[in-house]
Write a structure and sequence with these properties.
The complex is a heterotrimer.
Chain A: E1 12-23, E2 26-38, E3 43-47, H1 54-61, E4 69-74, E5 77-78, H2 84-94, E6 95-98, H3 110-121, H4 125-139, H5 154-166, E7 172-176, H6 184-199, E8 203-207, H7 211-215, E9 219-224, E10 227-233, H8 244-251
Parallel strand pairs in A: 3-8, 3-9, 6-7, 7-8
Antiparallel strand pairs in A: 1-2, 1-4, 4-5, 9-10
Helix pairs in contact in A: 3-4, 3-5, 4-5, 5-6
Chain B: H1 2-11, E1 14-15, H2 16-27, H3 36-48, E2 52-59, E3 62-70, H4 72-83, H5 91-101, H6 110-134, H7 139-166
Antiparallel strand pairs in B: 1-3, 2-3
Chain C: H1 2-14, H2 16-43, H3 47-54, E1 59-63, H4 75-82, E2 87-105, E3 113-124, E4 133-137, E5 147-151, H5 152-158, E6 165-169, E7 175-185, H6 192-195, E8 198-202, H7 204-210, E9 218-225, H8 231-242, E10 247-252, H9 253-261, H10 265-296, H11 298-307, H12 311-343, H13 362-388, H14 419-430, H15 432-463, E11 473-478, H16 488-496, E12 500-512, E13 519-525, E14 536-539, E15 547-550, H17 552-558, E16 565-570, E17 573-583, E18 592-595, E19 611-616, H18 622-633, E20 639-642, H19 651-694, H20 698-739, H21 751-775
Helix pairs in contact in C: 1-12, 2-10, 2-12, 2-13, 2-19, 10-13, 10-15, 10-19, 10-20, 12-13, 14-20, 15-19, 15-20, 19-20, 19-21, 20-21
Protein name (chain B): DNA-binding PadR family transcriptional regulator
GO molecular function (chain B): DNA binding
Pfam family, one (chain B): Vir_act_alpha_C
């Protein structure tokens, strides 16, 4: 395991999280003892095959699920046993969560979706509107402010969802397959936004299948069958790679 | 074929013919059948490089057979092979080789192999990302890069499958 | 077929609550309809029960004195009638004698006060003859030949109580004193005003006392029929068999019932309508539940179709399921009603068999149940037809969220509210049409409840002796003969009492309508200078002599309208009155003409008032005044006070019906609200997960959902009241018009009642909507089910 510095304490520290799901009458283990340390400002990608427990892990980190066993600490403070209401307040101020789908309230326009989140987090109506305009402009969606979620394409919806999650400048962004079902262009835009916020200091945990997305992270955690199989920093490819032969080696996919 | 033979010999010393059988058994019908002549040629090369050592064994009423065993240099070479990330056009084949052969040797552990390969792929992906960024205006390049990206993705997915099946 | 049953069984098992709700709603409605019918038929008017209990004859024949019948019972007539087709039995003939009632002396009073001269028919109590039902006092004493048991309406007319002494004139004109031993009610007897005479039962020996000549005595016979519905036909035959010169009067049980039931139609129609409205409401509620459930299962239905079920089979599945539930409900409801009817003998049909549950018998009961079944089954089946049309493509998850095609809501000013409310209202504003459907479903029980509540408040107003519709009053009568000084001292003492607003002299005379066919009451109260405050609702009050205000019953009887002149005959003297207004008249079925006392200026009219009508100051309870005034005014023993009568004989049972109906409507309303809450929760399920992630506490999420429920409930109550009140007013007034009291008695429930109803509905709706969010542990995000 890498990344745990003696000081300061990690933003998110998970110890031996265990969580199972009840399916009918059988108990299916989803996460079986995952320990993780995520520092402030880190960008962590979580990969693994379907059923490995990635989404469950993400939900545990966001307090959407309570672990059956184990501890979760946010900034050193234990949060895994918090009540719903306390978690809600925590999420309001410090988290931004993007789901794989269903990220937008169907009854409200794009602008209202983003602004309501901001107002809930405690911003004034005016600040909320400004933030919304700023974010939509960043994403190139300013012209869709009054549209309803049904009028947007998949990619546009995910971008708006990101905007919604980022409007309150969260310390921690949890994103579950934000680029799933997106074309490469939208994927690129989403990843670019994530990188930008990462540079500004947001800690990001990204669950993804997409290697390209994973490779933009600082660190890749591989889950397999509810446990961590690998946890490694992403590094630059070896210097030799940059040479002409190196590139050709990769790009020549004759075999 | 060199490293396959080295790996088989790392298990235990063997005759050339036994090695042929070993290859067939390990890889099964999906793998192109090794030619005994090719095997002997590879064996003599390996011997010349000092990676294996051959010893004559006399037999009653039969021509002499040579039994081969791996040398320390050969073991080192093998370990290095396992550890090095697999690259090049026939990544899948070679990596698969390592994965299968690792089982019987103490030199490598399957999970580590997979993890290492995955890390490598991801790092490669990062390189491709950076490349794509610099080649922004060049559509042909971008297309090539995209092709590489897709293949890398496919490799990573396959790695996951290997992990599911073999671990 | 087997697959269908298996599917139904599995489906019911997984949706127990919904099945239970449908069964409850159906059963409750069926039970309520049956019980209401029974209650109204028997309880609101116990006449039917009493008729049976008293063994009263279906046809009663009064025969004139016949010279041929010289003593003993008139065998030939009785035998003749017994042979008539359809006659099961002839009750033993009873002799009657006519006398004139001239005076009444209350027990303890020194001298008798005069009464109107009315005909008092004495009927001899013959063994075997039907005995009336004793209401107070005791029956005849064989030792007391001067004893008489008065009929109820006669006793009311002359203010008699057990212990009073009546002075009657015998055939020679000599006064005979009879003592009232008891007061009884004979269900087959018309009230004295309708019959034209007062009735009393005496010993046969008493008849000898007042009418020594047997030939001058009349005879009364009763016929029991095999088919009571043939009574009118039998009556005609009797008259032709016996000869019209012999028959002085013939009445059937139908006449008796009509004369008495007049007063109960008011409430009967209303409750019947409420019952129908309840049925409609139940049907809608069931439709709503079924519809909501089907909407939630479109995925399953699509799958069924993809598997290979045809649209028709899918529709049949649902229809069969709903019918099964409805049949179960109706059977349970009918069974429950039967048990309830048996267990509660007094207000119900007594120990009657099940077929007596609804007046009209088995056919009507079956019809009611069938109607309930059809209505509710059809209502539940309609959504099933919609289910059949669902496309066979199961919805894919992830790509396109459902129901997102429409434009988003424009929030406008709503945005300024706290975010929780905005989220709640946004959903409401967006799906207005869907919510309208839920609101409409809830409106029907609200309208029905308004109807029931208005019935209650109108009943309240009409039956309140302190005069909800009329001015609170008591009637005062002298018990001692007037002193030589006149009545001034008495009236002065009465007027001086703080509870009394005005003292008005009055007299009531029987009047005949033109054509001598019907009687009405001419009530002369107050003078032109000091007119009595009648509750005039049409036209104007009386200002001169010979002007009168009429009750609706009188207008109907005379065939007159306000503003016309009418001619009536009182005591043989014709009189012409100008009807200047219509007032609300609860007494005598509205067949009353009210005029000033000074209108009575013809020869033969009473010179002095028979009673004084005391109008009370508002807020004074007439019952209390009746008790305390004599003592207060120092007039103990000199005056007798009486309360005015109301039209509805048994308001208690009717109130019970109203309460029962309200309970049923509450149940139906609850079903509606549950459906709405469940549908709302299901609709918003996705959003609730997201809201949780955004940072809404469970309490806030509950508020978001509750806003929807509250909005619907309030809308329903508002619309229901707005529709219900005018409707009710028209219905009640119309019924009052028909019943003779007159239109204008409608009383809507107070504003507080509506506020309470609105508050209750809103609270229940809010709680039901909020409950699923608060109770169910937070679901894992993603109905898409990805990566659990």
């Amino acid at each position: 395991m890498t990344g745990s510095e003696p000081t300061p304490p990690p933003l998110l520290a998970a110890d031996d999280l265990v969580r199972s799901h009840l399916s009918g009458s059988t108990l299916i283990p989803a996460v079986r003892g995952v320990s993780l340390r995520i520092d402030r400002g880190e960008f962590v990608a979580v990969t693994g095959p379907s059923g490995a427990g990635k989404t469950t892990l993400l939900h545990l980190l966001g307090g959407l699920l309570r672990p059956d066993e184990g501890e979760l600490r946010l900034d050193g403070r234990r949060v895994d046993r918090l009540r719903e209401a306390a978690w809600a307040r925590l999420r309001r101020r410090r988290y931004g969560i993007v789901f794989q789908s269903g990220n937008l309230l169907s009854d409200f326009s794009v602008a209202d979706n983003i602004e309501l989140t901001a107002v809930l987090a405690g911003m004034s109506t005016r600040t909320a509107r400004e933030r919304r305009q700023e974010l939509l402009a960043d994403l190139g969606l300013a012209h869709k402010a009054t549209a309803g979620p049904g009028e947007l394409s998949g990619g546009e919806r995910q971008r708006v969802a990101l905007a919604r999650a980022l409007v309150n400048r969260p310390e921690l962004l949890l994103a579950d397959e934000p680029t799933g079902n997106l074309d490469s262009r939208s994927t690129r835009d989403v990843l670019a936004l994530l990188s930008r916020y990462h540079e500004q200091g947001t800690t990001i945990v990204l669950v993804t299948h997409d290697a390209r997305a994973a490779s933009t992270a600082d660190r890749v955690v591989s889950l397999f069958d509810g446990r961590i199989a690998d946890d490694a920093r992403v590094e630059e490819p070896p210097a030799a790679w940059r040479s002409a032969t190196g590139i050709r080696d990769v790009i020549d996919f004759g075999g | 074929m060199r490293h396959q033979l080295l790996a088989l010999l790392a298990r235990q010393p063997a005759y050339g013919y036994q090695l042929k059988q070993g290859l067939e058994q390990t890889f099964g019908a999906a793998y192109p059948q090794p030619n005994i002549g090719q095997i002997y040629v590879t064996l003599s090369r390996l011997e010349k490089s000092g990676l294996i050592r051959g010893t004559e064994v006399t037999q009653e009423g039969k021509p002499d057979k040579k039994v081969y065993e791996i040398t320390e240099k050969g073991t080192e070479e093998l370990a290095g092979w396992f550890e090095a990330p697999t690259e090049g056009p026939r990544v899948r084949d070679e990596f698969f080789m390592k994965l299968i052969l690792a089982e019987d040797t103490d030199l490598a552990d399957r999970l580590t192999l997979i993890n290492n390969q995955r890390r490598h792929c991801i790092n490669m992906m990062r390189g491709l990302n950076k490349l794509a960024a610099t080649e922004r205006g060049n559509r042909t390049s971008l297309l090539l890069i995209e092709g590489a990206v897709l293949h890398l993705q496919a490799d990573l997915d396959w790695l996951e499958r290997c992990q599911e099946e073999l671990i | 077929m087997r697959a269908l049953l298996r599917w139904i069984r599995a489906d019911l098992r997984s949706h127990r609550l919904h099945a239970l709700l449908i069964v409850l709603a159906t059963g409750g409605t069926a039970a309520a309809l049956l019980l209401a019918g029974s209650l109204l038929g028997a309880a609101a008017d116990p006449w039917q029960r009493e008729f049976r209990a008293a063994g009263s004859p279906d046809v009663r024949i009064d025969l004139r004195p016949s010279a041929a019948a010289a003593g003993g019972s008139d065998e030939p007539s009785a035998e003749l009638l017994a042979r008539e087709p359809g006659v099961v039995a002839v009750s033993p003939p009873q002799h009657t004698a006519e006398t004139t009632l001239v005076g009444r002396r209350p027990d303890g009073a020194p001298t008798a006060g005069g009464t109107d001269r009315t005909t008092l028919v004495l009927r001899a109590d013959t063994p075997g003859a039907a005995r009336p039902l004793l209401r107070s006092g005791a029956w005849l004493d064989p030792a007391d030949v001067h004893g008489i048991v008065l009929e109820q309406s006669a006793a009311d007319a002359v203010w008699a109580h057990p212990g009073d002494r009546l002075t009657v004139l015998d055939s020679h004109g000599a006064p005979v004193e009879l003592r009232v031993l008891g007061i009884a009610d004979s269900p087959d007897q018309l009230p004295s005003q309708a019959a034209g005479y007062d009735l009393g039962w005496t010993l046969p020996a008493t008849l000898d006392l007042v009418q020594p000549d047997p030939a001058a005595r009349g005879l009364t016979l009763g016929l029991h029929l095999a088919h009571p519905s043939d009574a009118a036909y039998t009556a005609q035959r009797v008259v032709s068999v016996l000869g019209p010169e012999r028959v002085s009067r013939i009445t059937t049980w139908l006449d008796a019932r009509a004369a008495r039931q007049q007063d109960n139609r008011l409430a009967g129609l209303l409750l019947g309508l409420s019952g129908l409205a309840a049925l409609l409401a139940a049907a809608l509620a069931v439709a709503g539940t079924a519809g909501a459930r089907i909407k939630a299962r479109t995925g399953d239905i699509a799958l069924l179709k993809a598997i290979g079920f045809t649209a028709a089979q899918v529709a049949w599945m649902f229809i069969t399921e709903q019918l099964l539930l409805a049949v179960t409900g109706v059977l349970l409801g009918a069974g429950g009603a039967a048990i309830a009817a048996r267990a509660v003998p007094a207000p119900g049909g007594g120990t009657d068999a099940l077929h007596q549950l609804v007046p009209g018998g088995t056919a009507a009961t079956g019809a009611v149940m069938a109607a309930a079944l059809v209505a509710i089954g059809a209502a539940a089946a309609l959504p099933a037809l919609r289910a059949a049309r669902v496309a066979p493509v199961p919805p894919t998850d992830g790509t396109r969220p459902p129901a997102m095609a429409a434009r988003p809501v424009r929030l406008g000013l709503v945005r300024r509210l706290p975010p929780t409310l905005v989220l709640g209202l946004g959903g409401v504003l967006r799906r207005r049409s869907g919510l309208a459907g839920s609101a409409v479903r809830l409106t029907v029980p609200v309208v029905a409840a308004t109807l029931a509540l208005s019935t209650w408040s109108t009943l309240d107003a009409v039956t309140r002796p302190d005069g909800g519709v009329t001015v609170p009053s008591v009637t005062a009568r002298r018990t001692t003969p007037a002193p030589s000084g006149g009545d001034a001292q008495l009236t002065g003492a009465l007027a001086a009492d703080p509870a009394v607003r005005g003292v008005y002299p009055g007299s009531e005379i029987q009047a005949l309508a033109p054509g001598q066919s019907a009687t009405l009451t001419l009530r002369a109260v107050g003078t032109t200078d000091a007119p009595y405050p009648f509750s005039v609702v049409e036209g104007r009050a009386i200002r001169a002599t010979d002007e009168a205000v009429a009750g609706q019953g009188a207008l109907d009887l005379l065939g007159a309208r306000v503003g016309q002149w009418v001619r009536i005959t009182t005591g043989g003297t014709p009189r012409i009155l100008h009807i200047v207004g219509r007032d609300l008249e609860p007494e005598h079925g509205g067949r009353v003409l009210s005029t000033g006392f000074d209108t009575l200026d013809r020869p033969g009219d009473p010179t002095g008032p028979d009673f004084w009508q005391l109008a009370l100051c508002p807020g004074h309870d007439p019952a209390e005044v009746q008790r305390d005034l004599p003592t207060r005014a120092g007039l103990t023993g000199q005056v007798e006070l009486r309360l005015p009568t109301g039209p509805v004989t048994r308001p208690g049972a009717l109130r019970a019906s109203v309460v029962g109906l309200l309970l049923l409507l509450a149940l139906i309303g609850l079903v509606d609200l549950l459906t709405m809450a469940a549908a709302g929760f299901h609709e918003r399920r996705r959003d609730i997960g997201l809201l949780r992630a955004i940072g809404l506490t469970p309490g806030q999420s509950a508020v978001v959902l509750a806003v929807r429920g509250t909005a619907i409930a309030l809308a329903a109550v508002a619309v229901g009241s707005a529709v219900g009140i005018p409707l009710v007013r028209r219905l009640i007034d119309r019924q009052g018009h028909l019943g003779g009291i007159g239109a204008g008695i409608a009383r809507a429930p107070s504003a507080w009642t509506f506020l309470a109803m609105a508050a209750t509905c809103a609270t229940v709706a809010a709680v039901l909507c909020a409950l699923p969010v608060l109770r169910v542990p937070p679901p894992t995000r993603g109905p898409d089910g990805a990566g659990r």
